[in-house]
């Protein structure tokens, strides 16, 4: 069990903070978009109550210390444009996974790179982590580009790891070590 002392991060343009019930409509907008969900591990949401359940689970997991999921809010407008999470913490091996999504209108602005950089600075400095992993569909070029920009290393291909709405998908597996992050040019 991992307790999170810091759950709010700010950058030049963004504020990351725990999800609240008021974020349901904004999250639904993101997760009901088939283009956003094209390479996600489940089908697009069809009902607002899926957003409510997602937020309830995130709130419980945050309190239990098993997942750090935050809303990504544009500081200037207060609009929630996506979410970012560290999850599947493995205490013995000091690793976890990262997951993220932005609404389509927020793509191509560097928001995710900015949000993940802030979270990784925090994660490697304050949490007992040695390694962070990402599981990406190899057709998801935008996500792989974002990971490469952050210094994640493409470590291999896991074949037919997912079956989403009947579609069999591979995983491009990425890893980032604390030593990679610390050595990264700023
Ligand atoms: C994955 C995802 C978050 C990437 O979004 P993105 O907008 O491409 O990524 P970033 O926020 O880091 O933006 C980077 C782009 O913004 C551009 N950009 C514009 N202004 C910028 C700025 N001030 N700083 C940095 N980059 C900037 C960059 O040039 C870059 O474009 P490029 O990749 O064509 O070179 C997005 O495609 C998404 O949410 N997809 C759906 C959900 C998903 O697949 N999640 C991942 C599952 S593994």
Describe this structure in words.
The structure is a single chain. This protein is of the alpha+beta class. It has one domain (9-183): Gcn5-related N-acetyltransferase (GNAT) (Aminopeptidase, 3-Layer(aba) Sandwich), CATH 3.40.630. Helices cover 31% and strands 33% of the residues. The protein has an eight-stranded mixed sheet, sandwiched between helices. The longest helix has 17 residues, at 48-64. The chain is globular, with a radius of gyration of 16 Å. The protein binds coenzyme A. Coenzyme A (COA) binds at residues 36, 39, 100-102, 107-113, 136, 140, 142-143, 145-146. Coenzyme A is lined by residues 36, 39, 100-102, 107-113, 136, 140, 142-143, 145-146. This is GNAT family N-acetyltransferase.
Please identify the top-level CATH class.
Answer: Alpha Beta
Question: Separation of termini?
Answer: 32 Å
Estimate the strand proportion: 25-35%
Shape annotation: globular
Q: For the CA atoms, what is the radius of gyration? A: 16 Å
Structural class: alpha+beta
* Count of alpha and pi helical runs: 5
How many domains, as an integer?
A: 1
Organism: Massilia eurypsychrophila
Keywords: Transferase
InterPro entries: Acyl_CoA_acyltransferase, GNAT_dom, Ribosomal_N-acetyltransferase
GO molecular function, one term: protein-N-terminal-alanine acetyltransferase activity
